Amino acid sequence: MTKDELLAKINTSIDEQQVKLEELKQKALDESHEALDDVRAAIAELEPKLDQAKAKAEEIAAVADETWDDVKESFESGWKESAAKLEEGWHSFTDKLKSFLS
């Protein structure tokens, strides 16, 4: 995978997660106080993970093209780990929210 391909994949994922987080923030405005506390806690948990993903993308973007092949595996592995943590946090929250709202 080229640096540009990995960055495109990362930025797409970040954009998708950012949309979900914004929807979550909007939902927090519409829910009861108990649910609101849960939503705020989830937002507080998810925002740092999203920030970490953005930082990883910036780190990859800063790598010189001529050194990309030397560091590619490390960055791809790091991104997979960051993406998995972000997705896990999102799924954990949505499962809690679904059980609360049902």
TrEMBL record:
Coiled-coil region list: 7-56
SUPFAM superfamilies in alphabetical order: Apolipoprotein A-I
Protein keywords: Coiled coil
Superkingdom classification of source: Bacteria
Keyword hit for Coiled coil: yes
Name recorded for this polypeptide: Coiled coil domain-containing protein
